[in-house]
Amino acid sequence: MPGIRADYMGMALSIDDLDGENLAYFKHCSQHNFHLQKCDDCSLLRYPPNTGCPWCGSAKATWTPVEGKGEVHSYEEVHHAIQPAFKGHTPYMVLLVDLDTQKGKPSDVEALRVVANLTTPDGVLAPPEIVKTVGIGTRVRMVFADVTDGLSLPQWTVDETAAQPAKPWRYAQE
Amino acid sequence: MPLPADTDASTPKYLRDKYAIVGVGETPYTRGSGKTTRAMATFAVRNAMADAGLKNTEIDGMLSYQSGDSTFAPMIAGDLGIRLNFYMDVFGGGSSTEALVGIAIGVIEAGLCKTVAIFRSMNGFSQVRIGGTGARAAAPVNGDQLHSRAYGWQSAGQMFSPTFMRHMYDYGTTPEQVATVKVIHSEHASNNPKAYYKKRFTVDDVLSSRIICKPLHLLDCCVETDNATCFIVTRAEHARDLRHTPVLIRGVVGRCNKPRMDMHYQHGPISTVAGHYGKNILWPNAGVGPEDVDLTGAYDAFTFTTMLQLEDYGFCKKGEGGQYVSDGTMRLGGRRPNNTSGGHLCEGYTHGMNMVIENVRQLRHDIDDSCPCDAHGKRQHTYDYREGGCRQVKNAEVSANLGWAMPGTGSAMVMRRG
Questions:
Q1: Looking at this predicted complex, what is its ipTM?
Q2: Is residue B351 classed as helix, strand or coil in its secondary structure?
Q3: Domain spans of chain A?
Q4: Is B169 within 8 Å of A136 when comparing Cβ atoms?
Q5: pLDDT mean across residues, chain B
Q6: What is the pTM of this model?
Q7: Which residue of B has its CA nearest to A74?
Q8: Residue A45's beta-bridge partner residues?
Q9: Does the domain formed by B13-128+224-239 have CATH 3.40.50.150?
Q10: Residues of B annotated as catalytic (active site), given as ranges
Q11: What residue spans of B190-328 are helical by DSSP H?
Q12: In chain B, where are the structural domains located?
């Protein structure tokens, strides 16, 4: 496959032509489908895409559709952006989300934990009034921020249809 | 020094106390060194040689670590008239310090060389900003980085914060407890003439400083400085002929990992760090336990990293790190002082080197504070730890350094007074 070069929020993003795993992953994302590699030997899914199974070491895997729903496992709120692209968007949130799929496997402290920003339903970084409502326990669903042909970034938005915790856990000093 | 009965070790016990750190040296800790990393490294290695009483012809091994931001060992050796039988420049940061001691022991033991100078030289403020600002922040985002940097998840503070936040959630750790790490290290720095920041801070100062990346305030984050640092490793029998009381190496952990370093967050609990695994190498190899340790050097890239490592290496029960770092244990005069130089939060940022250097001087009972010297130049420590005073730990016999690269990777070392 040819490589990809594109601009996202003023950042130069690229995937090299040799990087088959990321090209395949983001191609699915560009079709607004979330796929992960499922090990042909131990049947466990893994994230992010890579070249072998972290659970059993097998080289054989099959891209498998996975539901983009889960719960915030941890988060941070960036107030001092480092990258120029994010300077105008503070505070922004980075979420570590436990997917419902495969949660508690292979042991009860594990889950597929997918990293993305908190965004609005159309995949744009969430404004401060939404940021301050989200914390550990918030239910989220995956949306996609389109970048270019063959590349969309998975993002998280608050799941409007899910039962939400009365008060998600937020950092104490607020 | 009383030691507990030997326990099973995963490396041969005969290496315990067979190697020593015999010389330490550094440049001033500055912001704006006005010097190349080559000039600074040469200065630091020369200082460490002078401290040890070693001639350039007696150093035949050199190790350094860097991330494309420094000068390679052979250049420094050449500038010092050193002919090397072994050298290696390793890619990496904070988990390298103790790991390189392990490599030095290994290559000496294997007969590749006899005496190794380990250095780290960095213009971490004026050239390659350790906080990640500047040129690196704007670098294109490629391949695997699309799962991190594309989300504005790039700097050390940003990468580590989900761990810090989750520890608060899992264990009820409070911002006030964690802020106490900065308070204590700043007290220590106020007794360190070399420290870049000598001002004492309060918990309120930390909590009212601006938020960088929640849960990190500005004063939860370490400083960025320009400096080079060095220490020298050789056989203990050689060490006894040199200038100082040798500081013997009991055991080392080198870049011990949680599972899967490309994405350690897949493996829980995420509020657990690499020390959880490292402790099972460190204490058996060293033949001591946390209760035998008189002072620690728990890496303080952030206030949280000190706490997480002390907890996972077993200085307190899991989840009680907040209590441990705030109950006075790690203050000078307390049961087990931590980072008596002020560490990375106050003295200067060296990727772990200054914490080893500090503990070597502590174990020599010759810390460089403001206490008066006798007629022979030997410092007469007062053990009065008030601001501007002493920072020598009384009767320091055993130290533990806990080095950090990220939640999933760490190194460690136990040393004792020889």
A1: 0.98
A2: coil
A3: 4-158
A4: yes
A5: 95
A6: 0.96
A7: B162
A8: A38
A9: no
A10: 299, 349
A11: 203-208, 236-239, 275-286, 303-312, 321-326
A12: 13-128+224-239
